[in-house]
Amino acid sequence: MVVQVVLTVFIGLFFLLFILFKVIEPSYMMFFNKPLFVHWYPFSKRLKPHQRKILSDDFPYYSILSAKRKEYFEHRILMFTKQYQFIGKDIVVTEQMRLLIAATYVMFTFGMRNYLVPLFKRIVIYPTAYFSTENEVFHKGEFNPMMKAVVFSWEDFILGHLSSNDNLNLGLHEFTHVLHFHCMKNNDPSSIIFFDAFNEVVKYFSDSVLSSSLSDTQYFRPYAYENQFEFLAVVLENFFETPAQFKTVNPDLYDHVVTMINYKENQ
Predict the structure, then answer these.
(1) Average pLDDT taken over every residue of the chain
(2) CA dist 24 to 27, 28, 85, Å?
(3) Which regions span the lipid bilayer (predicted)?
(4) Distance of alpha carbon 109 from its chain centroid, rounded?
């Protein structure tokens, strides 16, 4: 009898979840261009007081969040630092490094339900620009899918983080490459929304009229026009660094980015 009740409950729950994710959510996405829900953590994890202070002092985005969303943010940071390995090359990886790198990624993906991706397993940190034996040039950062690694020069990462209005942010730039590749190959709700909106964003690179008009504003640095991958990465840097100016220069493109990452200005 007990077994039958448990089995009935299990089947009912499975059916409910099937309806929720396979019927209701696709319809919701079609109308609202966002997942049915983003945050749900039955066993939420919280940062320690000294870790929270690092974010409060060094990561302005965290400070503008509501109390509830700070809880979500902290949980995601801890899940990120648990999922990915941090490796220092001729540098000791500190807690501040882990928190600021994780917070950059979490800020970027805060509107996405499936935010931890399998395309990389480790964060490699060099003290300064490092020499690549593959193309024999110095790099400040890169996403290397073959090595499943995101690599940063800490000097350049922290410089991009501290200079909040120069539209140069190494962390955002490389993590955009990660999310771009991930969303091209996956069909979870956030990936679908990201890629659909990306197809609108990339028109400002591929369409000669739109591209010329955007280039004339000189708002994006020339590197944005190297290829569609760099275009997207630069667009996201500008989006987070100078949002008010971005919205003024091209409100339509700005709105596509808002949809792409399900971003909320007033958290």
Answers:
(1) 90
(2) 5, 6, 37
(3) 6-24
(4) 3
What's the rounded Cα separation, in Å, for the pair 237 and 176?
9
CB atoms under 10 Å from CB of 27, counted, come to: 10
Q: Tokens representing 121?
A: 């397993």
Task: Please name the residue ranges forming H helices in the chain.
Answer: 2-19, 25-32, 49-58, 60-63, 67-83, 95-108, 154-162, 170-185, 189-201, 203-206, 208-217, 228-241, 243-249, 251-261
Q: How many residues does the chain have?
A: 267
Domain-wise residue ranges, the chain: 1-31, 49-261
> What amino acid is encoded at 215 in this protein?
S
CA–CA dist 37, 40 (Å, integer): 8
From residue 165, give the alpha-carbon distance in Å to each of 13, 106, 156, 184, 214: 49, 20, 15, 29, 19
**pLDDT tens digits along 99-123:** 999 999 999 999 999 999 999 999 9
List, for the chain, all residue ranges whose pLDDT scores fall below the cut of 50. Answer: 5-6, 9, 12, 14-15, 17-18
Nearest residue to 104 (alpha-carbon basis) of 39, 156, 46? 156
